[in-house]
Amino acid sequence: MVILPGPLLSLIFLATASFVGAATATATEDVVAAAATAVTSSPVSNVEGRVFGRFVVVWLENTDFDKSVGDPNFSALAKKGITLSNYNAVTHPSEPNYVASIGGDYFGINDDEFHAIPSNVSSVIDLLEDKKISWGSYQEDMPYSGFQGFAYVNQVNGRNDYVRKHNPAVMFDSVATNADRLSRIKNLTQFYVDLDANQLPQWMFITPNMTSDGHDTSVTTAGQWTSDFLTPLLTNKNFMNNTLILITWDENHTYTQKNRVLGILLGDVIPADLIGSVDNAIYSHYSEISTVEANWGLHTLGRYDVGANVFAFVGKQTGDPIRNWTGTPSFDAMYFNQSYPGPLNAKKNGPWPEPNTAAVINGRTVLPAIVSAWDTFGKMTPYGTGIEHADGQHPAVLIQKSSTSSATGSSSASAASTTKSSLARKSSESRPGSLFAAAIGVAMAAVVGLGV
User: What are residue 56's DSSP bridge partners?
Assistant: First the structure.
């Protein structure tokens, strides 16, 4: 992390005050003022999917697989759906996993600081909007729609409630600089308003607060909250309407172990013969994106989403077979407990990785807007089309952009040096505000003093 001198930090605050504005302020009076004019929207759509018409993700916190699968509430929920026994987080700590779940990469993030990802880096939101599929994010105890602050504590007891690091959409400038998109990131209370009005979107990301998700409490608390939240919804006709639900965790708790977490699939689209079953195929947070892409026939991001396994029962109907990990090193050697170098890595900086704009998977191609933005800058990429993806101990090898390729293994100095200039050139075009936002985030993190 870069440590800025006090005077310089003060100048940065002054110089960027207009950019940051009320949206990132966390003082109570500022939040109340901003909330008074905040806009909330709940657009709906009805785009038919091949398997499901609605995808709901509920993310919980920091729990080893054995602890979560052994909790009575999660065990009871798993019996109503499919247990994903080989679902893997992609690194530590929390924030990069959230980013990866909608961005197809975490861009080297190795901390929980204030990050703003440049607007020329796309997310699943771009893919959904390209096909006019409605989306929304519901964040428990976020003070108002579109809030961009680092955190907001409980005003009564001082507990950690809402934290930016658990809100993936707001970390992408393509969302944070778009008023309409910000209006779709709402407090969880708005979920019930939308539910009653039958205005829920087709894609949802739901984050409990730091107590409910188990971060500051326990798996028992997280299990009780999840059961209380989901059980009534499983019989609610406004919610359970061709719906697939994924319950999962951002990362495991024990960093020295393989970063395996529990995944549970629920919903009225689960085939009757699979209720109570176990799926042991290899999945990761990138599978959340690939499954949505396969279901609605979306374009891809050209990143690790391309090769990620689609959930098996969905893939059986979309023509996406489960694939094995065939790269070197073997899957057993991959722990996914360290972040690889990247532009947002505080210790091991690297250039912005170029998407594989030539990638094709089961007929799905990269979003044309991504191809247009990136294709003229270089011919090398870290992303293949296999399920293999890198970790900190095994960084990706840069490969030629191709419709069929694999890029997992030890890093290649020669390949990296060959393409460094083109990748760095792309990095230099990112929104200047991102740098200032990151600097401000460092200060905000120190002031708030939240733990990882």
Answer: 204, 245
Q: Cβ distance 140 to 207 under 8 Å?
A: yes
| Nearest CA-CA partner of 41 in 205, 180, 137, 202 | 180
**Contact present, 4 and 442 (Cβ < 8 Å):** yes
Cβ proximity of 139 and 208 under 8 Å: no
Phi, psi of 327 (to 5 degrees): -80, 170
Which one of 30, 130, 216, 268 is the catalytic residue? 216
Give tens-digit pLDDT for 370-394.
999 998 888 899 999 999 999 999 9
Q: What is the pTM of this model?
A: 0.88
216 catalytically annotated: yes
Distance separating alpha carbons of residues 211 and 222, to the nearest angstrom: 8
How large is the angle between the packed helices 432-448 and 6-15, nearest 10 degrees?
A: 120
Domain ranges in the chain are 6-352+427-448
**CATH fold group of domain 6-352+427-448:** Alkaline Phosphatase, subunit A (3.40.720)
Half-sphere exposure of 310 (CA within 13 A, CB side): 25
Question: pLDDT, tens digit, for every residue of 144-172?
Answer: 999 999 999 988 888 889 999 999 999 99
